[in-house]
Amino acid sequence: METTMIIRGKNFHVKYENGIVSVRSAKNIGWVSAQSKPINDLTDEKIQEMATQTVIGLGLA
Questions:
Q1: 2 CB contacts (<8 Å, ≥6 apart)?
Q2: Percent of the chain beyond pLDDT 90?
Q3: What share of residues in the chain are helix, strand, coil (percent, to 5)?
Q4: Which one of 3, 38, 51, 60 is separated from 11 by 20 to 30 angstroms, measured CA to CA?
């Protein structure tokens, strides 16, 4: 699954693949994740929550 989200006023691409939620800014070509282990069967709401936490936790927004 791949989508676009606005987090703290910035556009981010969000990808959920093989149990890992990854994000990248609209200007960046690299994906980043703050997960240490895959988490399978996440709902769309949980994916959005994890993406937001990742962006804030890594200081991307």
A1: 13, 14, 15, 16
A2: 89
A3: 25, 35, 45
A4: 38
